[in-house]
Every structure is written in structure tokens, then in C-alpha cells.
Amino acid sequence: MKDACGVFGVYAPGMPVAFLTFDGLYSLQHRGQESAGMAVSDGDTITVVKDMGLVSNVFDERTLKPLQGHLAIGHTRYSTTGSSTWRNAQPVYRSVGEAGFALGHNGNLTNTAQLATDAGMLPGVVASDSDLVAELIEARFPSDEDSRSDGRDLERALSEVLPMLEGAFSFVLMDTARLIGVRDPHGFRPLCLGRLDAGWVLASESPALDVIGAHLVRELDPGEMVIIDATGVRTVHPFPPERIEPRLCSFEFVYIARPDTILYGKEVHGARVRMGELLAEQSPVEADMVMGVPESGVPAAEGFAKASGIPYGQGLVKNRYIGRTFIAPNQELRAASVRRKLNPIRDNVRGKRVVVVDDSVVRGTNQKAITKMLRDAGAAEVHLRVSSPPYRWPCFYGVDTGTRAELLAANLTVPEIGSYLGVDSIAYLSEENLMKAIEAPRAGFCTACVSGEYPVAVPVSLTKSVLEREASLDPAPPLL
Ligand code: SF4
């Protein structure tokens, strides 16, 4: 499973906004490792710096120092639409007359093709759905220079464009004087507002506030737009009320968000521990040790150990210096890349019946390689417990999971998955227990990838491209 993107914005006159944005992006690195970028305004001009690679590869003191200003936005990207090229790195910038604006997007629009057709764009004119949104906004700026004098052109253009968009989007935007944050009417992706002594911050996840000394004010509501400028913070509701229906991605709790992130007022780590506790009650097993797959499987493993009374132990070491690994073209090479990342602690697993707790199973590459590693290291039995339900449907809202043909649980029954992975037993957390673990009973969630119930209709053009990708795959069972 590949993560969504991370967005960040800061309005803080008198503070080193480029350095704050660097720190914010650094703490959102887990949401995307393909490219990083920021846009900084000094009140007159916007300067954009972006490149392929990790935040620390793109920025250093030399590149940050000249980025002086009072306002900035930043972005870390993992592509979900569009190819992985510099052209798709964000923030996206548009120069409009003497002004200009920049935007960063986390999510995935589901009506990109329709919007492009309606706008009379030829195929290939826009590089991505984020680029399309920038085009639509730019087209709504007045052409007459004088009519821009009140400085609210970006806000007005957004009020026209936002209701046209469907799918998942958490945006940060800026012109030379103001910072804007928007969440789609379902709130698929998170976005929160923070306070600095001398300013305001927007971020995908709350740890990006902690790292720069800001405190969390609140999570933006689904369908909310906030505008931050010299007068303070204003809220606007650009979507019709009937479109507001909260559907936060449940996999933010399972896997995507950091454990120290606050979502729906809860710290994610606690929810992951409860997932493990409920999994132990739901699918017990006799064993000598519980271990988590580093790192996102560890909190659920703690919970499993606590609820089952089976001692927790470390069975695998993760190489912390592995950055992005290349996408290996076949199963054998993918398994080799898992071995590069993880290695067993032989003395801890030898002769033991181990329960391996992982957060999710997508292709099964990791779990198959880990099972073999543990058996080679002398484990007597390997029992897999997964702290989320079987992942059977592709995501169209900002997480790249591949096609149904690539999803293990879309093609095999749970016992078949167990035999394919070579484990002695396997169990997944039920959807009901997943919701129970999150402990936000009145909140709305998206569970489309496990239930097949998509909150926003997926147009044929999108499913068609998925089907075409499926058809282009090797006709032999791709997972075996
Ligand atoms: S389909 Fe799954 S991964 Fe995508 S937004 Fe919904 S819950 Fe999240």
C-alpha cells in the first residue's frame, strides 16, 4: 500500500517560515517520498522550490536561507494519479497577472476526466488532477488588473471551483498575502489547524504542529475552508450542506497516519493498540510470543499481547537507513527487497510458536517473506494476525493499492491466503471490531476498500483504466 500525500502551510510574520515548513514536511515524510516542495511569499512574490526525492534531499540550509517571507505552503508527494515525474511535484504554481497562487493537494479527484472535458481541455494538457484544479482556478481570475485590487480573487475563484470537484481533497493554497486550507465534503483526508505564538499553521497531521512548537486548535470540518491572513482566521463553507457527509479514511487509523497523530480527537496509537486487543479476543491462538511487524504493526502487537497474556517480544529488526526502495518488477525481487529491510532476531524466535501481528495485507509480499525468514530462523509455528479487515477493493480516494487483480484478498479466500503465505493460521480483524477500536461511534468513515461501498461514485472512466491495467497484467495468477 502506498501512502497518500502530506500538506503543510504556515502564516507567521517575523518567523523563518521556510525552515518551519521544512520541519513540518519532515514530520509528514511518511505520507509521500517521491517529491517534496514548498512555496514561500514575501508579500510581493511567490518563490517555489521543488524536486524529486525526500524532504532532506530537496532542502538544506543553503536552499532554505534565501526563502524569506511570512507565508509558505509545502507538500510531500506519493503519486496516485499522474506519473512520477518532476512535472507532477507540488506545490503547483500559477502566475496570474502580477499576482499568482500555489496549491498542494492530498487526495484524488474522481471526476478529473469530466472536468477536463467540460473545460474543453485536450487530453494531456494537464499533468494531474492537482494541475487541473490550478487551471480551473486560474481561469476564474479576472482578466482586468484593476478588479484584483481587493486581493480576494483566489477566494472567489475557489468558491466557484470547489463545488465542481468530486472525490478526495485536502488542499493548502496561498497567494502573496493569505493561506487557505480546504477539506472535501467527506473529509476523506485529514487536515488540522494549529496556533503558533506569532501565527497559524495547517497540516495533514498534528505531529507537524508539535515539531514546530505549535499547538493543535482543531481538525478542519469536512467541507470547511479556512482563510488565514493579517486579520486572523475566517471560515467559509463553499459546498452545499447536502454534500457534507463525513467519511474519513479508516486506513488513516490502521496504517497511514503516524501513531502520535490526533484524528477525530483520538490519538492513533491508542486505536491501534485496541485493534490488537480486539483481534486477540476475536481470533485467539496458543503461542509463546507475540511480535509486531515494524513499525506500524507494533502497537497492535502490544495490544494483542496485553489481551492474550502471551509475552511480547521483538522478532524482527528493521534497517532504519532504508529510504525509498525501488519497485521491484517481480515477486522474487520484491521478496529480496523485504529481506533488505527486515532481519529476524534468531535467539528470540528459535523453537517458539510466534504470533506475527501486521496492520494490513495487500499483495502479501512482506508477509510471505517474513514467514519464510522466521521459519528459517527456527520458529516452530507462525500465526499471522492482521489488524484490519481483508483489503478487497481498490481505493480511488488517494491511496494507491493497485488493481483488484493485485489484491490478495480480492482473489483468494482467507484460508487460501494462509496457505499462500505459508502460515500455520491466519485471521483478520472484523470491520465491526475495527470501528469499535477507533472508538468514534458517531463519526463517519470510508471503508470502501474492505466493504466495496464507495461513498463517492467511481466513474466508469476510472474503473475502466483500472480494468485496462488489470488486463495488461500477466494472465498467469499474478500473486502466486
Ligand atoms: S477506500 Fe480504503 S484506503 Fe481509500 S479512502 Fe476509503 S478506507 Fe481509505
**CATH class value of the largest domain:** Alpha Beta
Number of helical segments with 4 or more residues: 18
Structural class: alpha+beta
Q: How many domains make up the 3D coordinates?
A: 2
CATH topology of the largest domain: Glutamine Phosphoribosylpyrophosphate, subunit 1, domain 1
The neighbouring-strand order within the major sheet is 3-2-4-1-10-9-11
Instruction: Tell me how many strands there are.
Output: 23
Distance between the termini: 18 Å
CATH architecture of the largest domain: 4-Layer Sandwich
Morphology call: elongated
Low-confidence stretches: 470-480
Query: How much beta, percentage-wise?
Result: 15-25%
Helical content class: 25-40%
Bound molecules: iron/sulfur cluster
Q: Mind telling me the CATH superfamily name of the largest domain? A: Aminohydrolase, N-terminal nucleophile (Ntn) domain
Averaged pLDDT, please?
89
Notes on the structure:
This protein has 480 residues and is an alpha+beta fold. It has two domains: 6-246, Glutamine Phosphoribosylpyrophosphate, subunit 1, domain 1; 268-318 and 330-442 and 452-471, Rossmann fold. It is built from 18 helices and 23 strands. Strand 2 (35-41) and strand 3 form a beta hairpin. The structure holds iron/sulfur cluster. The site of iron/sulfur cluster has 11 residues, from helix 8 and helix 17. Iron/sulfur cluster is lined by residues 188, 249-251, 395, 397, 399, 446-449.
